[in-house]
Amino acid sequence: MTAGVAVGTGVSSDAASVGGSELHYLTAGTGRPLVLLHGGIIDAATLSWGTLIDPLADHAHVHAVDMLGYGESDLPEGPLSMQRHVDAVGQFIDELGLDDPLLAGISLGGGVAVGTALAYPDRVGGIVPIDAFALGSELASGLLTWVLAKVQVTNHLSVALTARSRRFARASLASLAHDSATIAEETVDRLMAEARRPKAGKAFRKFRASEVTRQGYRTDYSDRVADLDVPAHFVHGADDDLLPPSWSRRAAARTPDADLTVLDDCGHLATLEKPNPVHDIVRSML
Fold first, then answer.
1. pLDDT digits (tens, 9 = 90+) for 71-83
2. Which domain holds residue 128?
3. Domain with 34 in it: what CATH number?
């Protein structure tokens, strides 16, 4: 594990070979397999899930994955689409021989959890999509999102500032939260550590180039969730300004076996802003 971002005394680090790339993950606990998936931009298992790995390991065999290009995982050559992330997680489940795993993911990871359950229904036992991407096609900032996907210099600058400026790093997290006071200093440390990796931001830029079109996000599972045949519990921050809570409400209404929790006073960072409710929801699905 990266220095300065320890996530618990019982947590160990490992890697699996997936499609020619090494996929890094943190593991702890025993019981039903639980696969935790983080978000995009600058993220990793230690950032989105660091405070929850140990508590969840009391109830499950946790596998907190650094998705392709994030954290300590390899950044593969070529485009990095939603489907490529989905296939990598499906292959990860097969590689480790996980039986009936529950997938819980936030933002990008929430969309990947939905996509994996749709693409590999016999390998997934349930999902908890949190503030999930890919449940709608409307661009977060309209046409500006498409422009930024084409002109990537702003992301390069943002990553550089996050790596160097604690004030900027905290402000970046605060912009996604309902209440900046919920952002712990340890979380800022973890974000800055990820931003200092040589490949920081590259996976997100490749993903954005693949998934953002002028007409909207390329991958949208909102019309396909009716085909989900595993239990799902959708979670969304009521004050999420990045991806609207209406996406999760619509998905839950269309999914055959689904629950929905909308967290009051919570933005886009539910695992960081409301860790106790998220813990309880994930635990209830195990």
1. 999 999 999 999 9
2. 12-285
3. 3.40.50.1820
